[in-house]
Design a protein that fits this description.
The relative contact order is 0.30. The chain has helices spanning 48-51, 69-73, and strands at residues 9-12, 35-46, 59-68, 81-87, 91-93. Strands 4-3-2-1-5 form a five-stranded antiparallel beta sheet. It has a single domain, classed as SH3 type barrels (Roll). The chain is built from two helices and five strands, in the order ββαβαββ. It has 95 residues and is mainly beta.
Length: 95
Amino acid sequence: MTNFAPGARIRVRADYPETRGPCHIRTPHYLRGREGVVERPLGAFRNPEDLAFARPAATIPLYHVRFDQPSLWNEGEAGDTVLVELYEHWLEPAG
């Protein structure tokens, strides 16, 4: 896995594991496939997607990622942002 530094441009993976069977996902649908910027790493934590099913859970870095609000919902003003906590396995470098 890649460790993303503050300021890194990322894209949230456009994956939909819920279409493949029961799962627990903390990544909002509206962010999948969208680009954002890493604000800061928050540490590494056990993967809640596995913990929800009592499976062994790897420790994965978690980040605050900032998104431009108007590009997500076509509302808001320039400079409005949304800050979301996302696990690294949902992130890929943008561009």
